Amino acid sequence: MAPAARPPTIPTDPGRRVRSRRGEGESLREEVLAAAERLLVAAGNEDAVSIRAVAAAVGVSPAAIYLHFPDKDALMSAVCGRVFRMFDAALEEAAAGATDPIDDLFRRARAYVRFGLANPGQYQIIFLTKKEGGRLADVPWEERPGAEAYAHLVAAVQRAMDAGALRPDDADLVATGLWMCVHGVTSLLLTLPSFPWPSVEALVCHVVQAQLRGLAAPPAPARGRPPRGGSPRA
Amino acid sequence: MAPAARPPTIPTDPGRRVRSRRGEGESLREEVLAAAERLLVAAGNEDAVSIRAVAAAVGVSPAAIYLHFPDKDALMSAVCGRVFRMFDAALEEAAAGATDPIDDLFRRARAYVRFGLANPGQYQIIFLTKKEGGRLADVPWEERPGAEAYAHLVAAVQRAMDAGALRPDDADLVATGLWMCVHGVTSLLLTLPSFPWPSVEALVCHVVQAQLRGLAAPPAPARGRPPRGGSPRA
DNA sequence: TGTACATCAGTGAACGCGCGTTCACTGATGTAC
DNA sequence: TGTACATCAGTGAACGCGCGTTCACTGATGTAC
């Protein structure tokens, strides 16, 4: 790795930004968040988002970022929040035209993968970057960004069960399982782009279809189940 | 992020290494690879593996690494090769006692997730780090590290189909789908450790069981399949 | 209407860090004569 | 057996880089009197 092969420095210097008028200092905050997302889009990679790169993209000194975010962690958390809202909106929009609960789940699955492939940088910061505590450590999960999108999925699963399209089970467990499947598809496609994958469409359909079909079938003999069965929480 | 919160510098300075005797220079190469893996284990994180950290762990100057590896990319590739061999061995060993082809697939799935959770650093460099060309760009997939493990999975799927335990289908597509499911489980568990997951055992069983059951059932109406069906390669 | 002053929205330069990589060098060791 | 020499297996110091973060500062602008 030559030093020159570092994360590509994106020359986004639109010149100096004009200083906000008095009382309008908050406008920089929004510009910073927008710039961070632009960097994610342009590079498709989280590494492109550094305090200095964001400051340069906005046309401001690095120190100015600290007027609105206590540290880089806080900035990234705020960006995550924005991205999660986009992500949730994309899934909700896709599911809006569903004809039945299974179609709903299919649409969500396809929209999920599509979002990840179309927004690799964004997908990376919300689902491929280890969140080890940081500033969200004390926030209960239900209040973290992303919780809403997850709740929507659980509800969709529950509707499918209520309609008899899926066998009754722990909707939370089933939703988590579906999430993991589509995440697996998305993240491997992003991480190993040169593997000879089947077409994305075929892959998503195959995986989701198999999963849903397995979830629709009547309970089979408890092959491979843990000793006492059920789905104990950790 | 305070500068002090950088990737934890692991104080592995076992003092100076004694210089190899003439003609035995190659021994350093193995020591370097072993040290890189030790760093992965200790930190559970790829970031801990830098040329300088490895050199320090071996007890040698950073420049000495370049006597055996042209650059960092080459070192990481070599580490990947080692890890893939361990990974494949773990899966083969787990599958060895299988009583039937479905049990075989279950055992592989469990061993896969177990490997990832027990070796997060190693899992990260083989499956969670983007391989965008680098020195493996020209190597055909069949010769890359990891190809063997994948081939073993495809063979196991084929055996299950031959035995009638899975409906006949493209074994490659089915294997890829299973891989993606277990990868999804493993990588989300590693990446979002603070999410309120169900127990790992329950999760793996649920996902794999649903998937295999869906793959065993007779073909359903082509709900959600791409226009012309089939599984076209990209 | 004029002026002193407080405050806001930043700037500029520096801090120390770890990184990958290069390059001139050194000292021990085996070998040819 | 002795000695000059080539080679091997490294070392040490430096290169330039980008990073997150801090801190003393500045200049425009609104406001109170």
Write the layout of secondary structure elements.
Two copies of one chain form a homodimer.
Chain A: H1 27-43, H2 51-58, H3 62-65, H4 72-96, H5 101-118, H6 120-127, H7 147-162, H8 171-191, H9 200-216
Helix pairs in contact in A: 1-2, 1-4, 4-5, 4-6, 5-6, 5-7, 5-8, 5-9, 7-8, 8-9
The first copy, chain A, binds a DNA duplex (33 and 33 nucleotides) through helix 2 and helix 3.
What does this structure look like?
The structure is a homodimer of 234-residue chains. Chain A is mostly helical and 234 residues long. In chain A, 57% of the residues lie in helices and 0% in strands. Chain A has two domains: 25-69, Orthogonal Bundle (Arc Repressor Mutant, subunit A), CATH 1.10.10; 80-213, Tetracycline Repressor, domain 2, CATH 1.10.357.10. Chain A is elongated, with a radius of gyration of 21 Å. Chain A starts with 26 loop residues before the first helix and ends in an 18-residue tail after the last helix. The model of chain A is unreliable at 1-12 and 222-234 (pLDDT under 50). The structure holds a DNA duplex (33 and 33 nucleotides).
Number of helices of chain A: 9
Q: Whole-number radius of gyration of chain A?
A: 21 Å
CATH fold call of the largest domain in chain A: Tetracycline Repressor, domain 2
CATH class of the largest domain in chain A, named Mainly Alpha
Report the average pLDDT across residues of chain A.
89
Low-pLDDT residue intervals, each spanning 5 or more residues of chain A: 1-12, 222-234
Order of helices and strands of chain A: HHHHHHHHH
Helical/strand content category of chain A? mainly alpha
Assembly of the depicted chains: homodimer
Pair with the most extensive interface? A-B, 68 and 68 residues
Q: Using the 3D structure, state the CATH architecture of the largest domain in chain A.
A: Orthogonal Bundle
Termini of chain A, distance in Å? 41 Å
Overall tally of domains of chain A: 2
Q: Summarize the biggest pleated sheet of chain A.
A: none
- How many beta-strand elements of chain A? 0
Principal-axis shape of chain A equals elongated
Strand content of chain A: under 5%
Helicity level of chain A, as a percent range?
A: 55-70%
Give the full name of the CATH homologous superfamily of the largest domain in chain A. Tetracycline Repressor, domain 2
